[in-house]
Amino acid sequence: MENRIFHNLREEEASSLKDYINLIKLNIIPILLISLTGLIVSVIYAYKAIDIYSSTTVIKLQKPSGSILNSPLIPEFNDWGSDRFIANEIEILKSYRMKEIVAYALIDSFHAINNPNSFYLLIEKPEDTFGKTNDITPKSVIELISLVNNATIEQKRGLDIVEITAESPSPFEAALIANTYASNYEKLNLRYERQQLITVKNFLEKQREEKLNDLVQSEENFKSFQEKGGIVAIDEQARALIDVITDFQSQRDATQIELVIAEKSLEQYKEELARQNPTIAQYIESYAKEPRIKRLQENISLLESQRDLALANTQGAMRRKELVDDFDSRINDLKVTLDEQLSVYKASIFASTPEELKELSLKVLEEEIKKVTFKSKYENLDNIVNRYEKRFNELPRQTIDYARYQRELTAYEKLYLLVEEKYQEALINEQSTPGNVLIIDRAIPPLNPSKPNRMMIIIVGLILGVGMGLTFAFVKNYFDNTVKTPEDIQNNKLNVLAWVPQIDTIDNNKDFEFIVAKKPDSIHSEAFRALRTRIQFSRVKENPIKTILVTSSAPKEGKTFVAVNTAGSFAQANKKTIIVDCDLRKPRLHSIFKIQRFPGFSDYFFGQASLEEIIHSSEVPNLSYITSGTIPPNPSEILSSDQMEAFIQRINSVFDVVIFDSPPIIAVTDSEILSRLVDATILVVSANQTEIELMRKSSEMINHEKNSFIGVLLNNFSYKSGYGSYYKYYYYYSQGGNGSTKRKIKV
Asked: How far apart are CA 151 and CA 165, in angstroms?
């Protein structure tokens, strides 16, 4: 049982494959034409396609490690989030702002190079310039942004390498676009990385100019005071007081500058953090202002101020050293405690902050702590300066004026030197802060184009052409509901009597319509001999078939052609045969035999001619025919009359085989009437013309209780495409085994 099922499945697969092959053979001409069209189009396109050059810039992205003057807050976490960072940088590369910067840079490069022949995509309508290169201008920024948008930005899998690839018909332009993209991204990235340092540097630069002006003005004031006759010297006690006040005032002013720098840095960090997560900024600020932290910072600042006072007031080196060591020890203990507490807070912040905000959050915390520290230190120093100011104001008036000018001069000198030092440090810090972009390979103009791959275009065009041809064939077959092969007839449970090959010469030569007489050795004549044999064996010998009706579903399906050649085939078998044209609406039999239509069948019925007068002999021995005669107004009444039955009996007694050619059965009822009067009925269908539904409906109409319907004949069938082996073997045997013939009919 299993073997039988497997065998049936194999037969179904083979049958399906055969159907596909036959379908391709039937549509081989349109498939070849469509494939050839696809090939020609692809060849033309490949020939006319413009060469495209591709150039690539390779850059390396890495997380910034910060300035060489600053170490990271928590080094062990420095490499976290590298993949996310690179993804963010790629998005910046693809941003509209970046493309706009590149567009402006390309316009500048166009004007700087001043060689329009090196450009193709950047220039505006080069075909309208008629060789006047002086009139060539670059495209607008919007158009160039769209051009830059075509650049490819890809990260190499698993690496920190990003490739920027540009394409252009000009190799120089392709390299220029890729390099411009990479260079401007490098500058933008560096500007982002140094943004906070630039802000501090600009502030210090402004302070530097102001303090220098103050110093110059102070020198002028002191010089003017001396020129007016002021005192040129003061006592040791006043000088010591001035030195102390000057030192503390310089420290206070320097601390104020540090405080402003910390505030500006903190402001920038907070703005960046607030854009990403406002809640975290407030959370970190609460840590920095935590009472215990603040108390430790205030105590450290207070002890540092007291240490400085001790150094200024204590007499004796030994005594000062003891006091300084004591203060330093206490300050160090407080700093250790503060560092421990800060470590706990930093770890807590680091653990509760999203990965991409950890580094920024720690920077905010650091600046918050600096701000609180400098603020506390400034307040303590300001109090000390105020106390010494009271003592200073107790000096004699002239001494006070002299001391004030000297104090201002000294204070401005120290402050300017401090600001200058900070400015230089900020400048070095800015220049030493690297970006996270390193251009590894700059794009160079390629020597050979990367596109188009002309051979690939031709191959793809051919494949697409073949695919479209096959698609056309299958789609056409899917929507085509006509009869194509004998299998289509058998699948509708109808008997296939025979199939007649297509004769292309019929349309141009009417002589070949009676092909059994004109070409008795042709494959078509053999088909009618096969039809004759199957008609003879469709009934038992005791009840042989003598009267045969030939009809079709619709006009122009070849029923008259089949009727005439079937009759000729019987005549060639020494059967006394007659064919009667019962198509009393659009008769054709007379045109095949090239005589007048009347007198004929209808004239006999109306008594205008005798039976002997309407019977004509043909060129084929044993074959006679009766034309339709005058077309009557009531064909159906004639065919259904008793006189018709009498006519059939009379003519049947004279001839061995009587064949009736009738009108299409779907159009009129004539054929259905005749099918009840004859021994056998043949339905003719035309390949690729007769609809399957019409064939099915026609067979139902003639398959009645008389049981005269014996099968279907398939006309105009293509042997070569569907049944090539039959075609080959027929010619082999029909020519005595030598496979040659004088003339073959085109089929």
From this structure: 6
Other CB atoms within 10 A of residue 431 CB = 13
Continuous segment of H or E residues that includes residue 56: strand 53-61
Longest Cα separation, the chain: 171
- In order, the DSSP letters of 514-565 are SHHHH-TTSHHHHHHHHHHHHHHTTS-TTS---EEEEEESSSSSSHHHHHHH
361-384: burial string, b at 16+ Cβ within 10 Å, e else: bbbbbbbbbbbbbbbbbbebbeeb
Which residues neighbour 367 within 8 Å (Cβ) at sequence distance 6 or greater? Answer: 262, 265, 266, 269
DSSP string computed for 376-396: HHHHHHHHHHHHHHHHHTTS-
pLDDT of amino acid 74: 37
Tokens representing 61?
């992205």
Given this model, what pLDDT does residue 662 score? 95
Structure tokens at 317: 């080196």
| Closest among 269, 189, 191, 83 to 436, alpha carbons compared | 189
pLDDT at 515: 92
Per-residue pLDDT of 61-84, as tens digits, reads 876 554 433 434 334 344 444 667
In the beta sheet, which residues pair with residue 660?
A: 549, 580
Nearest to 571 by CA among 521, 517, 612: 517
pLDDT value at position 404? 64
Rounded CA gap, 617 and 626, in Å?
Answer: 9
- pLDDT tens profile 625-677: 999 999 998 899 999 999 999 999 999 999 999 999 999 999 899 999 999 99
Strands 53-61 and 161-168: what pairing? antiparallel
Tell me which DSSP letter residue 691 carries. B
> How far, in Å, CA of 672 to CA of 678, rounded?
11
- Per-residue model confidence (pLDDT) at position 66: 44
Respond yes or no on whether the N-terminal peptide bond of residue 452 is cis (omega within 30° of 0): yes
Phi, psi of 528 (to 5 degrees): -75, -30
DSSP letter assigned to residue 98: H
Contacting residues for 19 by C-beta, under 8 A, at least 6 apart? 487
Domains and CATH numbers, the chain: 2-49+452-479 (no CATH), 53-194 (no CATH), 195-432 (no CATH), 486-719 (3.40.50.300)
Buried b (16+ CB within 10 A) or exposed e, 638-660: bbbeeebeebbeebbeebbbbbb
DSSP line for 288-351: HT-HHHHHHHHHHHHHHHHHHHHHHH--SHHHHHHHHHHHHHHHHHHHHHHHHHHHHHHHHHHH
Exposure of 725 by Cβ count < 10 A (0-12 exposed, 13-18 middle, 19+ buried)?
exposed
Q: What angle do CA 110, 114, 115 make, to 5 degrees?
A: 100
* Tokens (6 digits) for 119: 């450009």
d(Cα 168, Cα 126) in Å, to the nearest integer? Answer: 15
Provide the pairing of β-strand 577-581 with 53-61: unpaired
For residue 172, the tally of other CB atoms under 10 A from its CB is 19
What residues in the chain have per-residue pLDDT under 70?
1-15, 63-83, 125-135, 192-198, 200-201, 215, 219, 222-242, 272-292, 294, 308-321, 324, 341-342, 344-361, 391-409, 411-412, 426-435, 504-511, 540-542, 719-747
Instruction: Please tell me whether residue 577 adopts helix, strand or coil conformation.
Output: strand
Alpha carbon distance 502, 702 (integer Å):
26
SS3 of 593, please? helix
Query: What pLDDT does residue 742 have?
Result: 38
Dihedral class, residue 540 (left if φ above 0, else alpha if ψ from -120 to 50, else beta): beta
Token representation of residue 89: 């940088």
What pLDDT was estimated at residue 12? 53
DSSP string, 254-278: HHHHHHHHHHHHHHHHHHHHHHH-H
